[in-house]
Amino acid sequence: MVDSGRPTPFISDMLFTEVLLALQDRKDCYLAAREVTSTVIRELLKLPTSPKIDPKQISQATSKVLRRLDKRAHLRYVAEHPSLQESRV
Length: 89
What we know:
By secondary structure, the protein is mainly alpha-helical. The chain contains 5 helices and 2 strands; from the N terminus they run E-E-H-H-H-H-H. The protein has helices at 12-22, 29-45, 55-69, 71-79, 82-87; strands at residues 2-3, 6-7.
């Protein structure tokens, strides 16, 4: 992952935690969060910039996956990421 011009490691557990918070109202929130996290990682690895990925790309990919799965979780996730509010992902 590239943040502020410097490479930093991508930590999947951080993504999982953010997704889990967005999905917290679901009965299957832990399973759903794990599946969303796996799907996002698969999508990120398909990007032409892989293995150097911008944090905004991670947010956009996560937003896209959440939008397909759970609209409420998608809105909660977007509310926590101002860069997504500007681009209307």
